[in-house]
Amino acid sequence: MTHLPQWLAAETDDRNLAGAIVSMAAASAEIAAILRAAPIEGQTGLAGATNVQGEAQKALDVISNDIVLKHLRANPAISILVSEELDEAVEMSSQGTVIVATDPLDGSSNLDVNVTVGTIFSILPTHGGVLQKGEAQLAAGYVAYGPATSLVVRIKGATSVFTLAQDGQWRLNLAEAKVPAASGEFAINTARERFWDAATRNYVSENIAGETGAAGKRYNMRWVGSMVADIHRILMRGGIFLYPLDSETVGKGGRLRLLYEANPMAWLMAGAGGKSTTGRQDILTVEPTDIHQRVPVIMGSADEVQRVENWYAKA
Ligand code: AHM
Ligand code: MG
């Protein structure tokens, strides 16, 4: 069975890139071990601080960020770290050839209820600086801390899935994830309906109308409230995830962050045959202007994303 180091050796000659992925995988394995016992240790609550975006930080947000920092600092391949939990980009090694942008613990509001959370990461070449389009990524991945701890990673080729085994090794269990083009599942926070734009409203209404409406088939809705969990389900069996620009988030540019949430997920979707858009533009072509920039996120099964884009084109 293929382990992560063998897979990396076959995917890239860039040892710094491979090393950065190994560091993120090692940090994630450490985070996984802490999450497993967090309710016993009383670590699921708030840390009492807020991050740069004014969001309450959970104790585990801070702990996960510290673990990632520790692993990346020990790796001279890393030049800069951008983290959701840190106001500024952190300078690491002056010889580093890769930048890592990460959300160390995404979906942390789910920690109190023992629902899947994740670590998301994007890897960029140092020469381009921290503000590069998603299409410049060298690699991206996430770790889903669910019933199994899964690492989903892509360099240039396919999006591959590893599972953390009892012996601490990451074993390949799916070489090529494939997002089916058609799907009957959509994921959106419907409690925000009153803020939606016309395109989102029209798309979702068609889905709810099911076989009696223009979509002509029945849909189911799923919303974990943890992007990693929702995206993992879509990568494994199809569907669409929407966090569109709405009248409440318009001033901020959206809800989810471009550098360490939208771009890495869009990169993984592309490797699995899925599509990603802001509604009007491929997410991977969005020019970043700030490390914590937000962006509308719509991604998943190609036919579904196309239907949303069609509504945006009409709007
Ligand atoms: P976080 O990075 O602070 O955890 O926020 C991101 C999360 C995503 O995981 C999830 O898709 C979204 O926020 C949920 O938003 P909502 O609270 O509107 O359901
Ligand atoms: Mg987060």
Task: Give a written overview of the molecule.
The chain has 315 residues and is α+β, with helices and mostly antiparallel strands. It folds into 2 domains: 171 residues, 2-Layer Sandwich (Fructose-1,6-Bisphosphatase, Chain A, domain 1), CATH 3.30.540.10; 130 residues, 3-Layer(aba) Sandwich (D-Maltodextrin-Binding Protein, domain 2), CATH 3.40.190.80. It contains 7 helices and 17 strands. The strands form 4 sheets. It has an 8-stranded mixed β-sheet, sandwiched between helices. Strand 3 and strand 4 form a beta hairpin. Helix 2 runs antiparallel to helix 3 and helix 4 packs across helix 7. It is globular and about 55 Å long. The N and C termini lie far apart (50 Å). The protein binds 2,5-anhydro-1,6-di-O-phosphono-D-mannitol and magnesium ion (MG). The site of 2,5-anhydro-1,6-di-O-phosphono-D-mannitol has 10 residues, from strand 5.
